């Protein structure tokens, strides 16, 4: 390894910023040389800039401005842009986060250039290859040299896919580190006042392609959310992906429903903290509600985060069952987590990851890049 090795973090989409902030901070404290490459997959100020400010992330050293497109077009732009950056910057380690297209592209480019890689949030599986994220997860984990796992069941999944256990580290959840760091700033009152909400309200977020990409799915979903709003006002910070389709399906501002722009990180979590109920299809929000003890109804047939059901406040629901499930959750009041909180979701995942990376960068006995094991 070179003297003073360089670590590059590749970030592109809203949840990436939340997961990376604690890792960047902890590596900085260890004096590791590092930089952020922003791919520009998310580019609206409310999907990107606000997170750098709220999370105290340093300015990116490069922004590839890849923007939006079909999977092939966006991924192709990411591959080309990232190859140029990696060739110019010569990183010793590329760190990728979660399961977005920027994650997939970065691991692929690094693997082909022989650059070592680390994947934060490895091993999550919905076992639903119809989700674009599941494809990204499987490919990313097959190529990563270091795999950081947030949840114990991921260890078995990775082992069953032939990932050598020596590459895998259970470290806890850096998204929860960010939540812990923000806790003192999370005050529902100003956001609730600004939005003119009553003290009891629900929050909904929807952006999964299966929910918002067809008129039929959007209509079913919107009808269910409107039904919930007749009992308790609902505020919906709308992800740009579903904005037009959800509006066409009838999700518009009304007496009991507030349809707003995406919120910044601190405002959003403040709102969630004060909510009586969250309805979502987000991965990260399932985890955050578990930690905040807010009941969460997830509009999906499956989740790659089952620990939020077994150890948290999450339940999967269909649109048809949402109104009744919401009524029950609201009647039951503050959610009691289903079990003990997930192991190592304690705000210290970032320092654990940084310690492993720093030791790994110093090591003189590193395994060859993405060493694969021949089946017995
Ligand atoms: C992406 C991730 C998804 C993640 C989500 C987090 C992939 C395949 N999907 O989905 O896993 O849960 O981010 O939010 O990587 N758009 C804007 N402004 C922006 C960004 C997007 O208007 O700043 C609109 C564009 O119309 C774009 C659409 O949203 O076509 C989808 O954006 P894209 O990044 O392709 O996927 P997401 O649905 O955001
Ligand atoms: N989030 C936010 N503002 C919003 C909606 C979500 O700050 O209006 C945060 C949320 O707290 C979590 C992250 O964005 O930290 C989750 O991102 P998203 O739901 O877009 O992606 P997913 O987790 O589903 O990949």
TrEMBL record:
<feature type="domain" description="UDP-N-acetylglucosamine 2-epimerase">
    <location>
        <begin position="32"/>
        <end position="357"/>
    </location>
</feature>
<comment type="similarity">
    <text>Belongs to the UDP-N-acetylglucosamine 2-epimerase family.</text>
</comment>
<dbReference type="GO" id="GO:0008761">
    <property type="term" value="F:UDP-N-acetylglucosamine 2-epimerase activity"/>
</dbReference>
<dbReference type="InterPro" id="IPR029767">
    <property type="entry name" value="WecB-like"/>
</dbReference>
<keyword id="KW-0413">Isomerase</keyword>
<dbReference type="InterPro" id="IPR003331">
    <property type="entry name" value="UDP_GlcNAc_Epimerase_2_dom"/>
</dbReference>
<protein>
    <submittedName>
        <fullName>Non-hydrolyzing UDP-N-acetylglucosamine 2-epimerase</fullName>
        <ecNumber>5.1.3.14</ecNumber>
    </submittedName>
</protein>
<dbReference type="Pfam" id="PF02350">
    <property type="entry name" value="Epimerase_2"/>
</dbReference>
